[in-house]
Amino acid sequence: MTFTPNLFQGKTALVTGGTQGIGGAVARQLAAMGAKVIAAGLPPFATEEFDGTGIMLAELNVASEDSVRDLFAGIKQLDIVINCAGIIKRGAEHEVEVFEQVIAVNLTGTMRVCSAARALLKESKGCIVNLASMLSFFGGGLVPAYSSSKGGVAQLTKSLAIAYAADGIRVNAVAPGWIATPLTKALQEDPARSGPILQRTPLNRWGTPEDIGNVAAFLCTPAASFMTGAVVPVDGGYLVS
């Protein structure tokens, strides 16, 4: 195991978008380190992926103030928040209505959860990790809303790091590169598209959700106690190549 067992024993973590993909890997990593984990997202849930983990699955729509309020009404202690909830609508995001939907989930939803969690995290001197993206740094012609939202998440992370510091809350972000998930399956299976991605990635492989989970978990440990406002690329070197 990469981390000391039971490092998060006695701590409670909320992972939004935690019922699948990268969020699911983050939730499982935190649970393996001893945290009581609430993995929140939209159903249907692939419950078999969480068998034996002790992770509690909860319904959450981060674009709904009522949904966030209802979830937080049942949380009495909170030490860690990982914001992984997000959507992408390739090709359709040039339509203003779709653009607004993506921003509402990826950016406003992240802020909504951070704001709702602040008081509890102040009590625990806890931390937040947001999910940024390579598109926090690059543009995306097919995904202007996703790119804008993830650029916004990076700036939101820096801004909240300043605003929440007096409360003893650290706020950082992870910026994944090309990660092998169901959302990227079509890209992985198309040599004409996967080839250039791997050629530009110095480590010459697709990342895994667990790669992201490990770094997100690190940012919540005492080893990262002097880190706040950081946006950490986890991309196999794609950003610098």
**What kind of sheet is the major sheet?**
7 strands, parallel
Tally of extended strands? Answer: 7
What is the CA-based Rg, rounded?
17 Å
Share of helix among residues? Answer: 25-40%
Order of helices and strands: EHEEHEHEHEHHHE
Tell me the span between the first and last alpha carbons.
30 Å
Alpha plus pi helix count: 7
**Low-pLDDT regions:** none
Looking at the structure, what is the overall shape? globular
Which strand order do you get reading across the main beta sheet?
3-2-1-4-5-6-7
Structural class comes to alpha/beta
Name the beta content range. 5-15%
Average per-residue pLDDT, rounded, comes to: 96
Architecture blueprint of SSEs:
Elements: E1 12-16, H1 21-32, E2 36-41, E3 56-59, H2 65-73, E4 80-83, H3 96-124, E5 127-131, H4 144-164, E6 170-176, H5 185-188, H6 191-200, H7 209-218, E7 231-234
Parallel strand pairs: 1-2, 1-4, 2-3, 4-5, 5-6, 6-7
Helix pairs in contact: 1-7, 2-3, 3-4
